[in-house]
Amino acid sequence: MRLLQDGPATYEAMFAAIAAAQDHINLETYILDDDEVGQRFAQVLIDKQNQGVQVHLIRDSVGTLGTPTAFFERLAASGIRVLEFNPVNPLTAGPDWALNQRDHRKLLIVDGRTAILGGINISSVYSGGSRQLATRERPDGRVAWRDTDLQLQGPVVAELQKLFIAAWTAQKGPTLASKDFFPPPERVGNEVVRAIGSSPEEPFSLIYATLLSAIGSAETSVHLTNAYFVPDPQLLAALEAAAARGVDVRLILPSQTDSWLVFHAGRDHYDRLLRAGVKIFERRGVILHSKTALIDGVWATVGSTNLDWRSFLHNHELNAVVLGTDFGAQLQAMFARDLAASEAITLERWRRRGPGPRLKEAFARAWAYWL
């Protein structure tokens, strides 16, 4: 198991895994841009396809709306089997078309033995890491993105493979190639790892229910890092109850974002949480895109799920849950580094904010369910 911080490390791991592929590559992503990074991925996938390694690609229709059709036609022409998840155009979609349902998962599976998942899309915005000085921007002038992924091996890869195949089948994609999707599992490491997928078709989000249960059982600490924080009443109550039990509840949230409405809808809850004893920190100098949680230093999750209504109700999401002190220590060290680059939000300071932010929060609150 390997914890990956930011785009450069994650892309390096993905390219290495792809280069080593012998049988098949299954890739599922929300965004796949036609830029430097996207073109590099396209080329290495085409090269592997030409070598006889079958590539299957699921790309979300909304997430890739800005990517030219020619980009995917080139992939398909090489033999890569490409599936557009829930096409925006209802004329090309199936009878179960629902515009608001999106595939927000980020998953790479190679030969049924190695998997990489987390929050990183395939786009040049992630090509700059977040370990620079807080004031430093990428060479193109844009602020670096801070994200987290996880490279996995062992039996959990088979569970991730099942989720990929289920998504492909449910979307009625082209016939999957006859490949060795489920090689004999090998035990790797000492941690217990579970793959959890969620979709709007289910009666509830299993990822959400699992997180609520973990927070409800917390005895010492709840440390959450999340890009899009628009909690529902259950999550708010769980965080408040944990703080009331004396649990150290800390949230690292963005100080700047690519989603204005989500940003201010989340800030609308700061006063209530701060009054309850929850500690809130805003990560400076980067666009925070990580989605991680660490409970009591032992229960950890990394994945694509945001703490907002969209992730819990409308998106197909994917997380890995890891039980173990070794991985917990790694994630805790990463949390500490982000904490050191964050600014604490105190109740006194928060209540001194001007009318402008308050109006933005009130406006965003009305749209919380649809964000």
Molecular structure report:
The chain has 371 residues and is an alpha/beta fold. It has two domains: 2-170, 2-Layer Sandwich (Endonuclease, Chain A), CATH 3.30.870.10; 192-370, Endonuclease, Chain A (2-Layer Sandwich). 35% of the residues lie in helices and 25% in strands. The chain has twelve helices and 18 strands. It has helices at 6-19, 36-50, 69-77, 156-170, 206-217, 233-244, 260-267, 270-275, 309-314, 325-340, 347-350, 355-365, and strands at 2-5, 24-29, 54-60, 81-85, 102-103, 107-110, 114-118, 145-146, 148-153, 192-198, 221-226, 248-254, 279-283, 287-288, 291-295, 299-303, 315-323, 342-345. Strands 5, 10, 11, 12, 13, 15, 16, 17 and 18 form a nine-stranded mixed β-sheet that branches. Helix 5 (206-217) runs parallel beside helix 6 (233-244) and helix 7 (260-267) crosses helix 12. The longest helix has 16 residues, at 325-340. The protein starts with a strand and ends in a 6-residue tail after the last helix. Mean pLDDT is 92; it is low at 131-140.
